[in-house]
Design goal:
By secondary structure, the chain is of the alpha/beta class. The protein folds into two domains: 260 residues, P-loop containing nucleotide triphosphate hydrolases (Rossmann fold, 3-Layer(aba) Sandwich); 58 residues, Orthogonal Bundle (Histone, subunit A). 53% of the residues lie in helices and 12% in strands. The strands form two sheets. The chain has a six-stranded parallel β-sheet, with helices on both faces. A two-stranded antiparallel ribbon has the order 3-4. Helix 4 crosses helix 7. The protein starts with a strand and ends with a helix.
């Protein structure tokens, strides 16, 4: 059976470089599941792979461009939800498998956006049908009172979900609150029910889609990961992050830009903070984001973890993938 090799991990752990090497080794393509790298207007602040990053260079100096899907595929003016990504990515996966026409073929799915990875691996059950008036009211409250008031409500009404959610993403906060307000039940309750249903339907889904998933989680010692994050933020500044954010300032109200690396610079533009503090805030908020990512992935027992600070980690990962493919 065809397989999707999931390579997940926190931001800055080293997913891009490894996936490019793995794709070259297994002669395959990459599906990006990073919810911020979809957008063509956001590059520096999302650490989007460059053409050089997407190219594999062998020891004999030959090179090969690795096909990456869902990089620069959408505009911030048309945000892509996890549900929409599921539909579009599954179509791309099926199309690529068909064109490659290889028995027991594999593709690589990578990213740090747990919800978007889950969309491909498990799919989504339908949440309760919600009257649009709840979302309209929440959007008005967001505009009038800011995101923090909604975050405080979510933390009060569903502390479990708030502890793992990206609270800087208004879409996630509003989605949870519209369900909480309309049903008077915790959003996390519906998510647990969805997870249970997905487990029951996993085999049916595998047969329907014609592939199964092999999940790999990349990890590093916490101190090392945080140091990589701090350095990467400084490199983003050197590469022109401030200028990039300035080009999208008029779209600051759109959900894709309500994210780490952009919100802090918007605050600097608005005179709410100094540039030095904005940079420090990006580093701190990115570290917090990485912590939430790790919390999300630890809840999925299907992941096999690899510490990529250890020697020979690439060989170990390749050996593991090959052993799983042969099953």
């Amino acid at each position: 059976m065809k397989k999707i090799i999931v390579i997940a991990g926190a931001t800055a752990v080293g997913k891009t470089a490894l996936c490019t090497e793995l794709a070259a080794y297994f002669d395959t393509e990459i599906i990006s599941g990073d919810s911020r790298q979809f957008y063509k207007e956001m590059s520096i602040g999302t650490a989007k792979p460059t053409s050089n990053d997407m190219t594999y260079y062998s020891e004999n100096n030959s090179s090969k461009m690795i096909k990456h899907h869902f990089i620069d595929s959408h505009s911030i003016q048309n945000p892509l939800s996890a549900g929409q990504f599921e539909k579009e990515a599954l179509w791309v996966i099926q199309d690529v498998f068909k064109k490659r026409n290889k028995e027991n073929d594999i593709l690589i799915l990578t990213g740090g956006s747990g919800l978007f990875i889950q969309a491909i691996c498990n799919g989504f059950d339908e949440m309760p049908s919600i009257d649009s008036k709840f979302r309209e009211k929440l959007n008005k409250e967001l505009e009038q009172n800011g995101l923090q008031s909604l975050v405080s409500e979510l933390q009060e009404k569903d502390a479990e979900y708030a502890a793992e959610a990206d609270l800087k993403n208004p879409q996630r906060v509003i989605r949870a609150l519209e369900i909480i307000r309309s049903t008077n039940k915790k959003y996390s309750v519906f998510r647990k029910q969805t997870s249970q249903n997905q487990e029951k339907n996993k085999q049916k889904r595998k047969q329907k889609l014609g592939f199964e998933t092999i999940k790999i989680m990349l990890d590093r010692p916490r101190e090392e990961l945080y140091e990589r994050i701090n350095k990467r933020v400084l490199i983003m500044i050197e590469n022109g992050l401030i200028k990039e954010v300035e080009t999208v300032k008029k779209y600051a109200h759109l959900s894709p830009l309500k994210t780490v690396g952009y919100q802090e610079i918007f605050e600097y533009f608005d005179g709410k903070t100094s540039l030095e503090d904005a940079i420090s805030n990006i580093q701190q908020n990115t570290r917090r984001f990485a912590k939430r990512q790790l919390t999300w992935f630890r809840k999925d027992s299907e992941y096999t973890w690899f510490d990529i600070s250890k020697p020979n980690y690439k060989e170990k990962i390749i050996s593991f993938i090959e052993s799983m493919i042969e099953k």
